[in-house]
Amino acid sequence: MPSDATPDRSGARESSPAFDVGLLSPVSVGHDGLVADQAVLDALVAVEVALARAYGSLGVAPAAVVDDISTALGWQSNGRGCLGHRVDAVVLAEASVSGGNPVIPLVAELKARVPESARRWVHRGATSQDILDSALMLVSYRAGRAILAHLRSVEVELATFARTHAEDVGAARTLTQHAVPTTVGLRAAVWLRGVRRATDRLEAAVTHLPAQLGGAGGTLAAIVEIAGADAAARLSSPFAGALGLAVPDAPWHTNRWPVTELGDALVQAIDAVGKIATDIATLSRTEIGELAEGAAGGSSAMPQKRNPSGSVLIRSAALRAPQLGATLHLAAALAADERPDGSWHAEWPTLRELLRLALGAAATSARVVAGLSVDSAAVARNLAQTGALIVSERLSLVLVPLIGRERFDHLVAEASGGADLADLVRALPEAADLDVDVLVDPGRYLGLADAYLDGALRERGPHGETPEVLS
Q1: Rounded Cα distance, 45 and 53, in Å
Q2: Long-range contacts of 285-293 (CB under 8 A, 24+ apart)
């Protein structure tokens, strides 16, 4: 295999730096190790060993051969896969170009590392897609579990935040304008429901990620020839079990639902935290100032700034994720024949980048929500900016039957021009028997806000806890 080097202008070769360390994707920095090239390589080796071990579990491959392969390639019986195989990822990548995937040169490399008597049991009966698909599912499973842990932390923090600010009345905004009163707690409860729904969907997708085993054309013909039809039909179970993946009903070489369903769940999770980040970024604007991140970022030129940098990074992921999900669907739709010519290959970096963004966005969201603070004075100040106009919907329901739509619209127009709507209402003879103070109190026009918030808090916790555990 070629060495890890690139030619310079003089013809000499020098070491190549890593292509991507997150310099232009700061949301993922520190959170992408689970999907790095080394993690993928470790998973590829683990899948090859798992196949040999599956043969051994059915008595098809000799136990001594399976042990030799497992030992030589660093199989970890604690579920960590293969960590001692010593295959160089950069060298393997360079060798992958001619065949179009890394499994082809990997098989040759692994066979060279095991005893000669065991070599025929490395990759036996499998095809490159079996190994690569299974490895990506293994990487996705591990990354998915980490994403879920971050999302559950977000849920816990949001539940606490919503409860703490359940009675902080503020202005709901629609199409950027004051609408009706709401509470800071209810806004957080809406965030919580979105994250919880996304967490449930991602949990289901991750739990059902299957191994892949179909042989050259999805028929397992070679394995039937090697082990017989009965053993071939049963081989997927110990193979998937060794990897901690779901047992596939059948090969899914060109039926890409495991990838698209996982991709959709990842996009939904990033959407959910993206919504939170969008609201935080908006409400932390200088002229609004209702929310603030606990560890705000600064500026290279303006020392006074406290940028909502965590929310900015989460939004960067939310802006990129949907297009990645769409690419996975496009690849699935164009999965021609029994192995696609390009669409399968397009999935690999796309899925990995989507996992990477979800890891970073979920972890950043947990940090941001944990440190989120409310400026109650700013919430009250902003609420008061539109005076009684914030409850004009309520006033219309009460006053229009008494004074008619035209007169009421005139009152609102006067109030929009600077007059005090509450005083205008008090001056109406028809309002003599009304408690105007109650009618114009934003805290008395919250509808089912408390019930919706309480409902969100009564739902199961991120680990199925009762509300008492979260209180």
Answers
A1: 12
A2: 288/378, 288/382, 289/375, 289/378, 290/170, 290/184, 290/374, 290/375, 290/378, 290/379, 290/382, 291/372, 291/373, 291/374, 291/375, 292/372, 292/373, 292/375, 293/368, 293/371, 293/372
Is the separation of the CB atoms in 139 and 39 below 8 Å?
yes
Tens of pLDDT along 366-391?
Answer: 999 999 999 999 999 999 999 999 99
3-class state of residue 210 by DSSP: strand
Instruction: Encode pLDDT of 448-457 as tens digits.
Output: 999 999 999 9
Q: What is the pLDDT of residues 138-195, one digit of tens each?
A: 999 999 999 999 999 999 999 999 999 999 999 999 999 999 999 999 999 999 999 9
CA distance 291 to 170: 12
Tell me the C-alpha to C-alpha distance, in Å, between residue 139 and each of 238, 346, 348: 18, 17, 11
Closest residue by Cα to residue 192 from 289, 279, 256:
279
pLDDT score at 39: 95
Largest CA distance in the chain: 102
Q: Strands 373-374 and 291-292, how do they pair?
A: antiparallel
Strands 81-82 vs 169-174: parallel, antiparallel or unpaired: unpaired
- Give percent of the chain above pLDDT 90: 86
CA torsion sign, 287 to 293 to 295 to 299? negative
Residues with catalytic function: 299, 339
DSSP line for 94-122: HHTTTTTSTHHHHHHHHHHHS-GGGGGGS
- What is the model's pLDDT at position 76? 87
Closest by CA position to 127, among listed 257, 31, 218: 218
pLDDT at 19: 79
> In the structure, what pLDDT confidence band is assigned to residue 83 with cuts at 50, 70 and 90?
confident
Structure tokens at 258: 């495991």
β partners of residue 276: none
